[in-house]
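Students often ask what a holo structure prediction actually looks like on paper. The answer is less mysterious than it sounds. You provide the chain, you provide the ligand, and the output is a string of discrete structure tokens encoding the 3D arrangement of the protein together with NAP.
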Amino acid sequence: MTVKVAVTGFGGRMGRALAEALKQAGEAGKAELSAAIVRPGSSLVGADAGEVAGIGRNGVAIVDSLENADFDVLIDFTAPQASIDNAAYCAQHGKAIVVGTTGFTPEQKAAMLSSADKAPLCFASNFSTGVNLCFNLLETAARVLGDDVDIEIVEAHHRHKLDAPSGTALSMGEVVADTLGRDLAKVAVYGREGQTGARERETIGFATVRGGDVVGEHTVTFFADGERVEITHKASSRLAFARGAVRAAVWLNGRAAGHYDMRDVLALK
Ligand code: NAP
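The corresponding structure tokens follow.
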């Protein structure tokens, strides 16, 4: 069965990458782009989605509302408020949704995730297979190295990214903090400047770099005395995220209502 997938934020960077990933999934008979949605009033309304995404005409006319879309699963990489609204729409209509947006406040994240009570929802701050494998590696490293190390997380992204630190960096911090029995909200240090005093062992430091066209790079370093371990992931194409999101959409189709993440999809739990 080919899963019918709608994409919101179709005119964005991830929207276009999703079009490419869905074209590949269509060739494998797994999933196809059934609707492409943009913001009301966008000049893209009515245009051919394939042409806009640069993958060749595909006969899917871009629309400006989910009301005009036919789909089994929605993939949403937009902005926090739009994702909250789109998840609520899916919950109301019993449709599955894959959310890749980042930059939620804790309240916004809770509001978006509350839609999982009524429909299947897969949310991940990073849909690449490699990053989700890294989460498991980080768990192992934190368990083995324990409280004998200083832990710092450095991430780099393109100049257009709106939120910092990245959702992926925060997820990495959460994995490490949870494994060590620490509360990330209490131990996170976001950047340092001036007379900071000596580093306290239980803190987890975050540093952000922005520039150029960097798709996404993350390094978590475990500093011990005499040695250090670095776990690094480098994305070189948005297709890595888009392919993962399409895989999640196929996996999610037909599941019970609930909150899932990419580690469920990849059976990494
Ligand atoms: P982008 O190029 O800015 O695209 C965002 C799209 O969402 C745009 O088409 C934008 O439309 C649309 N949008 C924003 N607010 C909207 C609203 N209120 N109503 C309707 N449409 C709205 O950004 P991107 O690089 O594709 O990234 C999108 C999100 O995904 C970001 O939060 C990013 O951090 C995240 N991301 C996650 C992953 C992951 O693996 N989870 C990977 C990459 C990116 P307009 O152009 O009309 O404003």
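Residues 129-235 form a domain with the Dihydrodipicolinate Reductase; domain 2 fold (CATH 3.30.360.10).
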